[in-house]
Design a protein that fits this description.
alpha+beta
Length: 81
């Protein structure tokens, strides 16, 4: 049985991503742009919608986007039960 996706607000997702070193660098409309700069100068950028509760498909998309930079095993506890 696959793990169940949590119901999260944008602020909870932002807090989880801050734990991995991402910082909000700008907001435009209802989206926040997060940036993490590595020691070699590589910039990693994520975009998160700022809604009270993120729809399951949107939350899954944010998770998938974040797994480009963070191992899925480390992220899973923040997004899934």
């Amino acid at each position: 049985m696959s793990p169940k996706l949590k119901r999260l607000a944008a602020r909870e997702v932002l807090a989880a991503l801050r734990a991995f070193g991402f910082e909000v660098v700008s907001t435009r409309g209802s989206h926040a742009k997060l940036l993490r700069e590595l020691t070699d100068g590589t910039r990693q950028i994520l975009t998160v919608p700022l809604h009270r509760e993120l729809a399951p498909g949107t939350l899954r998309a944010v998770f998938r986007q974040a797994t480009r930079f963070i191992p899925a095993d480390e992220l899973r506890s923040y997004f899934f039960r």
